Amino acid sequence: MSHKLKIFLVILITLTIATGVYSNKVNKKSETVTNISTPTLESIQKTEITTPIFFPNLKQGKLSKEDIILNSNLSNKEDILKDIISQLLKKLEDKNILKKENFKYEVYIKNRTLYLDLDSKILSSAKTPQEELLLIYSFVNSLLTPGGADNVVLLINGSTAEKVNFINISKSYKLNSNI
């Protein structure tokens, strides 16, 4: 065997041994389990979803606005809208615009039109046409601000009505931020 061939074989054997040693070290490192801390349920913060509600400010003759936190367990649009109405009714009761009692209401969406069926006692609590208009738009603006619908049709006790007290409510209402 020639001298050059012996040197080549020694280099080849050395390279093979070095590759085997390196591969063995990599395999041992991959067998070591590194603990990864996973977040606990307490550390995961739920994102609060807020939306504004509008309520009459009778002294100023316009609507006031306040952000509310929606119930995070709600998934469909109708339940979210019912939560908005529920919180709005509570705010109207707290502001002494409505008497504290259980009002019946339903809400549903069809073809980007929101149908709001209210108890007649809600609108009949208004003492002037301006109060009634502010009360109507408190519902309209609160329900249309989050999006998903273009207009609101009011129903009273399950059917269309021309008016409860002062204002013709047989039309559909659009968002009005100037009121």
From TrEMBL:
Pfam hit, one: Germane
Q: Which residues form the GerMN domain?
A: 73-161
What the entry lists under InterPro entries is as follows:
GerMN
The name under which this protein is listed is GerMN domain-containing protein
Q: What organism is recorded for this protein? A: Cetobacterium somerae ATCC BAA-474
